[in-house]
Hints:
This protein has about 190 residues and is α+β, with helices and mostly antiparallel strands. It has helices spanning about 5-30, 35-60, 65-100, 175-185; strands at about 105-110, 115-125, 125-130, 140-145, 150-160, 165-175.
Amino acid sequence: MNREEFQKVLKDFEIQIRKRLPAMINSYLANRGNREYEAAFNHLIDTLQRTRKELLKHLSKVARHEQKVRYFNAVYNLDSQLRSMGHKDAHQKHLRFRRHRLAAPVVYDIGEGPEQGDLLNVAEEGVLLKTAEKVSVDREIRVSICGKQARGKAMWSLADESGNVETGVRFLEVSEDFLKEIKEKLKE
């Protein structure tokens, strides 16, 4: 491979990473489980990895300094986009959790006495509450539904324009009675 060929392959590699890879990641995550999208995504990743190895093999022999910098920037971009796939998936899971599915009265205590709130959603590891004010992250919260209690920590607390505050609570200590009560509320 000479410098001109290296330049051409490098330019194509950069374009694939900047333009095609983000679109493929989004379509892959949106259509998870679809074989066609998975095959196309895996084919693109395999092609990029082969090109990466081929360019690396000839990097020290024919590349100028600026081409080396462009190569390493492109490789870093490729790796960071693939790493961020997990973050996008976690963010989508977080957004699905924040969708309101139920509204049940709940009493919560952040150390300043019991206050009334609403149970908005439930997951296996925590609950989403509508609280009167923002709760600081990692603050311990006691949640009570129909006399059944659980203890958890605030993971986030977000206020909207209307003044409502949604607080995500991860369970630290939960009783079986509390879980049964939550499951009954979900069925209603």
